[in-house]
Automatic annotation (TrEMBL):
Name under which the protein is recorded: LuxR family transcriptional regulator
Keywords: DNA-binding, Transcription, Transcription regulation
Gene3D superfamilies on file: Histidine kinase-like ATPase, C-terminal domain, Winged helix-like DNA-binding domain superfamily/Winged helix DNA-binding domain
CDD domains in the cross-refs: LuxR_C_like
Organism: Kribbella pittospori
Amino acid sequence: MQTADPAQLLTTAAQIIDGPAAEILERLSAATTELIPHRAVAQLASQCASTPVTAYGEPGLAEAVTGADLAGLLGTVTAGHPWQGVVPIAGSKHYVLAVASDRAPRGSVVVFIRDDETPTTAGTTLQALWDVVTAHMYQLTLEREPGVLAQNRAVAEARADVAAELGEAHAASLATFLGVLRNQRIDDTSARTMVVELALNGLADLRTDTQRDLVYSGEEPAGKAFDRLAESLRALLRHGPIDLELDAPGNDQLIPAGVAHTARVAVRAVILAMLTQDGVRRIRVGWQWTGTELRSTVRDDGPGRIEDVLDLGQLAERLRLHEGDLDLDAVPGWGITARITLRTHPEARTTTSDPLIALGSRELEVLERLAQGHRNRSIADDLHISESTVKFHVANILTKLAVTTRTQAAALYHATATA
């Protein structure tokens, strides 16, 4: 396939979806090899638990692709806007073209792993093909028995949570070790002894976490839930130059243990992202529990730039699976503020007729200006945030409103405002 001729495009799409579902990527790769030369093609579909990640191409490369490599793309590549860039796969950097589709409820991403970074103009054609493939694969899942489908999705969500939490736990341990080893006030012998002690304590914590989670498997007081977060953060930051400030919840009402656990994981993920910046000296963490919503706020005093959007996008996607939100502000020279909201009654947000109810306060501010025709730079200046923060919010807005373009989002805003 070399052109985007409509008749040829339809013929190619039919060839790709005509055959066993397990061979779709192979047929997609064969059909697009002239349009976009590639070494391998990989797919991530978050609603599929049995095979959420599939790949076809060079054996050594295709077999090395994991969900961890692609998960960040699922949260940040916007449907209708193919993305070209570099993604680490199996420890090496690879040039890729990623195409996202919203033709399935949780979306899907296809990634063409290329030999070089030469820009391609095939994005529009590949977008059309991938939308057809995604719709076809989702329809196949609907034809399965409802019980199987529900179990499939539940396993997919659980797998994503466990993988993310394990990765963050490893990152937290490594960050703690590095904090000790980089501390100029600790001599080599003491540092080595301290790292060994931290490693032993970490292994002990792994053995006791399961029993502790069983104790709090239903509900726990908000104060105790926050204390568990504070304990883990103090251990994470104890040997580094970071001052940790904590604002405990103002009440001790019971909070669902699952909500508290998800909030702790999300807060730690945000802090680990903040620690990758230079110049961070203070981090402030607060919780507010209203009885139906747990609102976590994390602020730093760093440079106020979002350099690694993929990590933040991955966290936002995981929170969306739990009917939660990540609202982010990055102000150059002032730092980053992350607001994490988790709800105990998500159905209250889905039964309303207002499609904008899913948006956070900052996202509504961005959407209002977007609907007025402002560009990202203008919105950033008006709200005193960075342009990369605006891009982050726009991607979230398009996903939450189930639209693919800024124009569609603006039209939905105007229709809702005048209704």
